[in-house]
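Weekly puzzle thread! Below is a chain. First person to post its structure in token form gets bragging rights.
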Amino acid sequence: MTVSGSAPYAEPQIGGKYGGYIGMTGNWATWQHCRDKVAWSPANSKAANTNFKTYHLGIGTGVYWFMGGPGVDPHYNGTTSEAYAWGQQQAARTLYDVGKLSVTYPVIFADVELPGNAPGISPAPDNGWNSVYTSPCSGRFSSRGIPASVDRAEFNGFFDYTAHNSRFTPGVYSSKPVWNSIFGTGGYSHIRHTYEWTYLSDTSHLHPTPDGWCLRGTTTCAQFFGGVTSSDTHAVMWQWSGGGGTFNGFGDFDQIDANRTPAWRA
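Winning reply:
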């Protein structure tokens, strides 16, 4: 989505000041040479950082990593130790990519989703969270069904590596139905103290805009997951229009609670 005009930059289509840009710093499929794309706009990042650094508006630039589950790990063997290592490897690559960017928001989001048929983004309809593939780029199943314990081990690997090897705080982008389909509803799904970005409930419209995690004058409100609720300090972002396969004709719009932004880690 083009951010036009001069600084301080305005939010496209809905007005107000441009509050921030959250871009894909990397894609597991691109990393594994599957010829898939990374969704990154240098122009939008620059505009967001100008608003943040010069005019003290919004959050500047944040990032997410489009995660591949255990089933697209080239060394998958069904163990939690291998899944944990696969999560660590993705975190390491994320930090490598971030090192080449000007990132001002202190949370790195692991993008945990089931993209479905998404040519150019992922060859695996479930990103390897629920099925094992013959190879990372093949798009062909070798088996179906991955234990929630293995999926969670990978998430833990990404989380721990990010937390222990950078000043960033690890977070996650997902939705309640997707999260539950991968991790279940038991202990492996609980992430009570993890910073979250959700996309449900969303709308294809741009008006009304959000206020307090709900669209003004409606019952359409953000739904967080893994035990986190909208009243928790770890609920930080809501992709209220254009996310999760809902199209508004322009792009994705997010509500960000800047007051809940964590401090940079020491």
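Puzzle host: Confirmed. Bonus trivia for everyone else. DSSP finds five helices and eleven strands in the chain.
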